[in-house]
Structures are given as structure tokens and as C-alpha cells.
Predict the 3D structure of the following.
Amino acid sequence: MAADDLLLTNVRVRGRAELVDLRVEHGRIAEVGPGLDASPGTTTLDGGARPVLPGLVEPHLHLDKAMLGEREPENPIQHADRGTLAGAVATTARLKEGFTHDDVAARAEDVLRRAVTHGTTVVRTPVDVDPTVGLTSIDALLEVKQRWAGTVEIQVVAFPQEGLAARPGTDELLVEALRRGVDVVGGCSYAEDDVEGCRAHLRRVFDLAERFDVPVDVHADFAPAHATDPRHALAGDVAALTRARGWGGRTTIGHVTTLAGYADDARRRLVAELADAGVGLVVLPPTDLYVQGTVAPVAELLDGGVATALSSNNVRNAFTPFGTADVLDVTLLAAHTQPFGTRDGLDRLLDRATRGAAAMLGVDGASGATGVGRRSHDLAPGSRADLVVLDSPRADHHTALLDRAPRRYVISGGRVVAKTATNTTLHVP
Ligand SMILES: [Zn+2]
């Protein structure tokens, strides 16, 4: 028996009426069905008729800038820029002056412990690169990535939050980060002084993606729904670059909140362009709502064939003073803003928080945003055994989501990495 062999019994899998067992061998799901036998000595875990999901995925989580809320210099209530994008960037730029390797790693690991407790086994993290912080955060996150390997798959994105032309010296640091082995090149398409500068920024990001043969992950179109600043209308440019460079399935955009304010025709056109180019889109409801008051139309994106996922983005900083790094909280928040309030709708979002996001990130053999190719990150034989047992006995998955059920067991590669037991005693009729 190997340490990553396991028999998880008596769980509910979406799409199956009966309770089943999952047999895990060498960290992968070997068999799914009722009444399975374990080989002698294999650890057996009783799922207690609880629903189980594949491991949760955070495709966009800023670990380097998390947990800064208490360091903000001004009284947050009196801070005039509170809740604005410019204010959050400025506040965070000041705080970055004090970042050290150990500080970044400690805050990142604080968030990772929370994320794993909630069932997350894959994180893509954009990490700031600029002359203020240099490569301090990148080096810290590359080290954290190694330390957490086998528990959480971490993809590090080098992210020029403050721009390239707008922050001289950043481009060289971005190149050096790629040389040091970051997984993805990031961009911030609205960070330059004018729209032509923003377009040059995007071209440069794709140039680097080609040179280092890595995926692209850009922040784009992050403004209120009816904003008219042309720097926040560049998702179509990202789609065009993706097509031109053959980067379909390897390009992801975060935010695109402005899409919510487009006229019907323009919105449908952009959705079709993104789908056609193979660009994935990650909505970030906590930040999108807090800073811009809107979220991109997830249902319309999915109906239009755009690979779409959800993520926390920020946890307790000037961009989002809230959060527990729980993707299911984010999922439920998204459901408040969109037409997902039915059983099918919630199931659809749960799919995006697990298998859909994993496919977008190319996890475990999936081929990028389209998710075409090998079936992966699913409750099926051959998939890595990343499993989350929701503590709502005898409930369906969507009910467990509504219950905000604790995660009874979190299993990564066949190994139990978190266990939560709650015990409430009621004295009522
Ligand atoms: Zn972000």
C-alpha cells in the first residue's frame, strides 16, 4: 500500500443517483462505483453520504499582496481613494516598499493554508514585478511553489501591475522573472498612460510569451460598466493577438467588467471574438463588485462558448478588504449577481470552480482554455485524486453550496491534506 492509496466510500458524485466509492491508487482515481474493495492495508475514509467535488481551483489569486489590510496607512473609513482602482494601486505601491522575501512568503502561505482548508488544490497567482519590489515577491513565490508541490499546484504569473512604459525598468525584470522559471507571463493592459501605450504593452506581453513559450494571463477592461476610457476596451485586442500569435487555449483575461455595460450587439460580438480566439475569462466577483460594482456576464459568456471561471483575486487588501480564499464563497457571490439561482445554475458554477478552471489552466494534461483533450481534474478514472468532501450529509452539491458547508475532507493526490469537523449542539424544540 502506498501513502497515496485510498478508498473513499459512500459519497455522492454529481450526475449519479446512488452513493459510490472512489478507489485511489498512486494518487490517481482508479475506479468509481458502489461497493468497491480496498486492497489490504489501504486507508479507508467514510464519506458519510456527503457530496464530493474535484479539488477547487483559484485561477487568479494574488498571494503576494494578500493580507495587507491592517498595514494600510490611512484610516480606511476616511481614505478618499478607498474602493477605487487608482487608490488601491497607489496604496499597494506604497506598501510594496516594505515587502521582504519572508514577509511575502508568510502572507502567501497564510492564504494557502486557508485555501487548502476550503478545498483548493490548484492556484494560479499573478505576482507583482516592478522596480519597487524587484523580484522579491517572484523569488518568494517560486520558493513557496516548491514547498507546496504535491499539496497545491501553484502557477506563478509575472505581473507588471504598474505598467511597462509607465514604470521604466519593469520590462527587464519581467524578462528576468521568465528566465527564473515563472510559469506564465502577465500583463496589465490598462496600466499605461494612453490607449496606444496599452496596445504596445499587450504586444510586448505576447512577444515574451512566444520567446519563453509560456501562457499569457492579462488583467483587462477593469472599469465600471459604462466607462468610456478606451484603455478599458481592449479585450478584443487580446482576442486578435491571441489569434494572430496562435495562442488560443493559452491566453486568459481577468476582469472585463466593462463587458457588462456594452450594448447587446457589441457584447455578443466581443463574446464571439473571445470564444473564437480561445481566450479564457476569469471573473473576480469580490474585487469586481467592490471596486467597479459589476461582474462580467458569466452566463452569456458560457452560452457563447467562452471558457469562463471564477476566482478570489485579492484577499484582505486595498483591492478587496474581505475574503477567506474560499472559491465556493466566490461562487455563491457570483450566483447573487447573475442568473444562476437554480439547481442547474449552481451546478454549472460548481463545474467552473473545479473542472472548468482546471481545464483553462491546462492542469493535469488538459489543453488550455478550451479544455479539449484528456479528461482531467474530474471524478473519473485517470484523474489526479484531488477531492473535496462537503460536510452536508445526504445533501446534493448545490444544497451544500447553499449551506456553505465546511469541507469535511480535502484530499490532494490521494492524501488527506485538511479535515474539518464541526460540532453544533442545539437546544431547541
Ligand atoms: Zn488580479
Summary: The first helix runs from residue 85 to 96. The pocket of zinc ion is lined by residues 60, 62, 126, 219, 254, 313 (CB under 6 Å).
